[in-house]
Design goal:
heterodimer; A: mainly alpha; MetI-like fold; 2 domains; 12 helices; globular; disordered N terminus; B: about 260 residues; alpha/beta; Rossmann fold; 6-stranded mixed β-sheet; 3-stranded antiparallel β-sheet; 7 helices; about 35% helix; about 25% strand
């Protein structure tokens, strides 16, 4: 969780030029980022075309770009790549959705009922410490070869940051806020809805951002294990056929998908938790 | 609303199993509409005393009574509270923060949303924040935030107003201005004011009477009546009369306590 918050601060720091309203600075940043990409691709192309890195280990950058172009055309025209892209997208979104619902519910129950928390928290921590990926073969046995096993894997990986952050958020209410609410005669449920939940929202959204990324990890691992659809499956298949350019293309598509989905959560979070970035209250 | 405090004692049990006496034998009577300051060094129990009067924490023994006997704090008597920090909810505008009080347990008798809204706006006007109703706390300065919190405390039409170093975090100029404004609000609203501070000048300027407290155990060791005329204004601060009152508070303090 701490990790995520530090990450957020970095992200906001990176965007501060835009908030200052200096357009020139934004253009400069974009120009720098495009240059970095061009230099990276140029170096890649040079190293592979010259044979420093043999082609059976790494395709050239231009081959990957060509494969990517083909895949994108296929996606836009509703070809087979569209099915793979769509399959993974739905798996990630379902995984995220169930992680969010289950994570917030479990986190809230653990935060609210101290007896349950005391009885189960060590096991939650232990489960979080377990590499859940190790369950993948069993998940296939339990949930089959179809999308269900992928979604279960996604949830297994993504639910914990939501649980942990929900718990932390509900416990984060300022002592002075509690005094205030008590002095105003607030009931327990008024305190929960009017103060503790709004206070927890920034924490929950930090957890949801991580959950979206983790959900993609879980879905791809699920596709590696079994099935015949999805971008993870395409990567695996390309590896078996030794089509490294296709594998790279699928990975780039996964990366773009993950980036955009994560962005969605960030934007939704900023809308809903509008006071977080602005608020410089001495608290 | 008269406040009668009798033989009040508060004991906290410390972590090592021992006991810390935060308040011991505090007895005083605060008349209706009086402005009293509790002054003393850190750890003298002044905030504890305020919290007990406000009904935030229970006393170990002794009693706090409102009016002519009866009535526990927070029940039939509305006690307003202003903290050192403004404690505004950042997801609510200034206006919404002011009427938060009315949406909770101690709802003022049968008020419509419109009536509440216009009452909250009146209070924002009163504390000098006309035109800032729709602003969020982070768009306001520290002094403005504290004004919002005063307006919030006033919404409940509290007959007793407890203030726990409300201006301690403000700069000197803002603080002086807030003193004058607080007194003019107090004169208009007529509440009984109990004000905690460790600033002797502040206590002399605001109060009718200063209760001097010392720590270990926290007790009221002296009462100093301030003989400055009302209404008070900033020009009084340099006068001989003011300095004389400050000196009397100081003497009372040093007679009973060596820091």
């Amino acid at each position: 969780m701490t990790e995520q918050i530090v990450f957020d601060e970095l992200e906001q720091g990176a965007e501060s030029p835009r908030e200052d309203g200096r357009g020139a600075s934004v253009i400069k940043t974009v120009a720098l980022q495009v240059s970095a990409l061009v230099i990276f691709l140029g170096a890649w192309e040079a190293l592979t075309v010259s044979g420093v890195i043999p082609s059976y280990l790494l395709p050239t950058a231009s081959e990957v770009l060509a494969a990517l172009g083909e895949d994108i055309r296929d996606i836009l025209t509703g070809g087979p790549m569209w099915t793979h892209f769509y399959t993974t997208l739905v798996e990630i979104l379902l995984g995220f959705f169930f992680s969010a619902v289950i994570g917030v519910a479990v986190g809230a129950i653990l935060a609210e009922f101290k007896t349950i928390q005391r009885a189960t928290y060590p096991y939650v921590v232990a489960a979080n410490a377990t590499p859940r990926i190790a369950f993948a073969p069993l998940v296939v046995i339990w949930f089959g070869f179809d999308w269900a096993s992928k979604v279960v894997m996604a949830v297994a990986v993504a639910v914990f940051p939501v649980i942990v952050n929900t718990m932390a958020g509900l416990a984060a209410t300022d002592r002075d806020d509690l005094r205030l609410m008590r002095s105003l005669g607030a009931t327990r449920s008024q305190l929960l809805w009017r103060v503790r939940i709004p206070t927890a929202l920034p924490y929950i959204f930090a957890g949801l951002e991580t959950a979206m990324l983790f959900s993609a990890v879980g879905a791809v691992i699920g596709e590696f294990m079994a099935g015949n659809a999805g971008l993870g499956y395409v990567t695996l298949l390309a590896q078996e056929l030794f089509r490294l350019d296709d594998a790279f293309s699928a990975i780039v598509l996964l990366s773009v998908q993950g980036f955009l989905l994560h962005r969605l959560v960030v934007i939704a979070g900023r809308r809903l938790v509008f006071w977080q970035a602005e608020s410089a209250l001495p608290k | 609303m008269q406040v009668t405090i009798r033989d009040l004692r508060k004991v906290y049990s410390s972590r090592g199993g021992g006991e810390v006496v935060a308040l011991e034998g505090v007895t005083t009577e605060i008349s209706s509409g009086e402005f009293v300051t509790l002054v003393g060094p850190s750890g003298c129990g002044k905030s504890t005393l305020l919290d007990i009067v406000a009904g935030l924490i229970p006393e170990t023994s002794g009693s706090v009574n409102f009016g002519n006997g009866g009535a526990d704090p927070g029940q039939s008597t509305r006690v307003g509270l202003v903290f050192q920090k403004p404690v505004l909810l950042p997801w609510r505008t200034a206006l919404q923060n002011v009427y938060l009080a009315a949406q909770l347990g101690l709802e003022p008798a049968a008020k419509t949303d419109d009536a509440l809204d216009s009452r909250a706006r009146e209070l924002l006007d009163l504390v000098g924040l006309s035109g800032f109703a729709e602003k969020y706390p982070w768009e306001l300065s520290g002094g403005m935030q504290q004004r919002v919190s005063i307006a919030r405390a006033l919404l409940l039409e509290a007959e007793v107003m407890c203030m726990d170093e409300p201006f301690a975090a403000l700069d000197e100029f803002t603080r002086e201005q807030m003193h004058v404004e607080l007194l003019s609000i107090w004169e208009r609203q007529g509440f009984t004011g109990i004000f905690v501070t460790h600033n002797i000048f502040e206590s002399a300027f605001l109060s009718d009477r200063v209760l001097v407290m010392t720590p270990r155990p926290g007790r009221v060791v002296a009462e100093v009546a301030i003989d400055l005329p009302r209404p008070r204004h900033k020009d009084m601060i340099g006068t001989l009369g003011f300095t004389e009152n400050v000196r009397r508070i100081r003497d009372a303090m040093s007679e009973h306590w060596t820091g």
